[in-house]
Amino acid sequence: MLLDLRIALSSLTAHRFRTIMAMLGIFLGALAFTGVQTMGQIMVRKAEMEVEKMGPNLFAIMAGQVRFHRGGGISFRGFSKNMTVGDALAIKAGVPSVLNIAPMAQAAMPIRVKSTTVNGLMTATWPSYQQVRKFYPQEGRFFTLQEQEARQKVVVLGRNIATRLFGTPQGALGELVFIFKAGFRVVGVMEGKGSDLAGVNQDDQVFMPLTTYQRRASNTSYIKGIFIELAEGADMEQVRAASLNVMRKRHALGPGEPDDFSLLEAKETIQLRREALDLMSTLGAIVSTISFAVGGMGILSIMVLLVRTRRKEIGIRRAVGGRRKDIVRQFFLESALMAVVGGGGGVCCCVALLLLFSSFSDYPLILDGAVLVGTLVGSAGLGLAAGAYPAYQASKIEILDVLTG
């Protein structure tokens, strides 16, 4: 076996360029297949982690219609201005299993400190927001119920906003920021959270009391949505039905009239993302198959070439006692060797890229052994299949044909 391996390496290195080109297709196929399958798992796990951070029992009612996008993101259209805090209170009173609510309004606003201005997403809400969304201050505190009732001009900054305005999150505490020329005292800075399932960077938000926002900043009474914390084991079908009934009655929607609000579960976004990634995985598998096919054809072509150029070697091996099955084994070994090296290179390259990606992002690192091993086994199998015909050709070479040729 060791002799066969030395012969295989000698033969392949004698045709380096063609060997490398043949392995390149396998390399790209393994890289594409491993990368697509693994990234799909990483994206789904990331979405699950976001749901876990928000709490498994988060439910939301949003004004207008929500549109889901491939990949799991959401956007709003047909935004209605008739959702109010009264709706939130009615939901808490009329829907079973509701533990806590946090109505909220949002608007993009510039935040200024001296000559520095940054754009942030103003999120006006209740103090209960931090419990409902499982999102807490890391420095200082969140605003209180008393500050909300008194419409105090206080804010809690997202971590990115605080860093961009004051250099460090700690340096923001107690300072004034200006929104619409009004000064607001910073009482806290939120923990780092990253992007949520809707693709919103939660660290670029600024939080203020809803009453302050409605009376001092926007002079409006409507809200954008209601975040709801449900009891453990809540019956989601019952919750959705009760929420739908309460909201349609409050908005005086008659039979046949479309809803002017949307009911959302975080798990719905995970399912949509999973479906989108399934499509991506299918397309990736098609591309990988094409790359593998090209690589297989490359191995087949170089092995056929090797049979033609090594007729004398094959004849001599037969003359000194080499059996047909030894010749077949030799060519199978060479084709499998090219495939395994190409596939192994693709898998190793993919693992290196995933390690690099995870080190510079907040995405988890997932290395599925079944995918990695399966890719290597598939590469080897393709190599054996590509080497079958050349091995058959080599085994049919007769000693007399070589000697008289």
How would you explain this protein's 3D organization?
With 405 residues, the protein is α+β, with helices and mostly antiparallel strands. The protein has 2 domains: 2-49 and 271-404, no CATH class; 81-259, no CATH class. The chain is 55% helix and 19% strand. The chain has 13 helices and 12 strands. It has helices spanning 2-13, 16-54, 85-94, 129-133, 145-149, 159-166, 210-217, 236-250, 266-309, 311-319, 324-359, 369-395, 399-404; strands at residues 58-63, 65-68, 74-77, 98-113, 116-125, 137-140, 154-157, 176-179, 182-190, 205-209, 225-230, 261-265. The strands form 2 sheets. Strands 1, 4, 5, 6, 7, 8, 9, 10, 11 and 12 form a 10-stranded mixed beta sheet that branches. Strand 2 and strand 3 form a beta hairpin. The chain is elongated and about 105 Å long. The model has no long low-confidence stretch (mean pLDDT 82).
Note the main sheet.
Answer: 10 strands, mixed
- Terminal-residue CA separation: 30 Å
The portion of residues forming beta strands comes to: 15-25%
C-alpha geometry = elongated
Helix-strand topology string: HHEEEHEEHEHEHEEEHEHEHHHHH
Total helical segments:
13
The number of distinct β-strands equals 12
Write down the overall mean pLDDT: 82
- Secondary-structure class: alpha+beta
How many domain units? 2
**Percent helix:** 55-70%
Backbone CA Rg: 32 Å
Q: Which regions contain 5 or more consecutive residues with pLDDT less than 50?
A: none
